[in-house]
User: What shape does this take?
Amino acid sequence: MTGQAEEPPDLSQPVLWSPAKELAEARERMTWHELMSRRNIESSEVLQERRVIEYVSVGDFQTAVGFLLASTPEKSIRYYRDALCTLALAVRYMINHAIDVAL
Assistant: This one.
């Protein structure tokens, strides 16, 4: 490590895989998924899981926690499992936030 900031990758050049491009595409997909009705997501365990994974994959732990907390036990297929995941994500968010404050 030289201590200098890395230059942003040139997205116009053809590459097999680019983390920056993947992150941008994931964020774009998230905006489309946020337009979906909550009722559609709550009826499908797979869609709920994918939505949480989507938030976590882009590092948005706070939104993942909010998404998990938005379901009531009667409306969520996996409420108690989600509650445990919520605690884990909240702890991860707190650790990231504490590190950012310390720096």
Q: What stands out?
A: The chain has one domain: 20-102. Helices lie at 19-34, 38-42, 45-57, 61-69, 79-102. Residues 50 and 102 are 32 Å apart (CA to CA).
